[in-house]
């Protein structure tokens, strides 16, 4: 546990006005959090809000894009390349979010290719995986997670800039948070899979964070689970509650 610094990401998804972003940044800037030796914080505004956030956000928080294209800059209307993100000084990108898998139809293969491309260009990747309710009820949670990780493991060798976000689809935006036992069980299985398929070192050092209805009222308890190394927060990251979630790093 000690080797893995707690990681809290705020995924703002497709939300925000200039006014609400300014107000949220102001709230975050005034918040007290443990030092950067205890917690790493990343926020992910929409692409067009990134410059505003970059110029105004406290410097101990980093920024992540919510997506990147699978190739470099070029004739890809509507996309953002890793090169553009690197040029803007954005250190992280979220890839494979279940909303993009489900709504845009991104496959695990495409997400693996994107992960490889972005890592090669120097970005850190927050790689999202997780099962649907039907898959959980069919007892396929681990199978689904392993199936989403396998194409990535086949393509990358350096995991030092990968954070795995386990986000069960049934818990996202539903208020139905996984219990600490449910999340811990899957996190431990993912870590075991990494040990088996990649290496013991990668398993020991890779942060596996939980996402899905994380809030100020449940983050302290979730943080105590030994294999939960942080959170990817949606709805609560748009509110002052995000500061409370960040502070749960002290419970880990
Ligand atoms: O999808 C999520 C973060 O990426 C989680 O969203 P909620 O926290 O709103 O459930």
UniProtKB/TrEMBL annotation:
The keyword Isomerase applies. Pathway: Carbohydrate biosynthesis. It comes from the Eukaryota. InterPro entries: Aldolase_TIM (IPR013785), TIM_sf (IPR035990), TrioseP_Isoase_bac/euk (IPR022896), Triosephosphate_isomerase (IPR000652), Triosephosphate_isomerase_AS (IPR020861). Keywords: Isomerase. PROSITE patterns: TIM_1, TIM_2. The keyword Isomerase applies. Pfam families: TIM. Gene3D superfamilies: Aldolase class I. Belongs to the triosephosphate isomerase family. HAMAP family: TIM_B. Homodimer. This is Triosephosphate isomerase. It comes from Coccomyxa subellipsoidea.
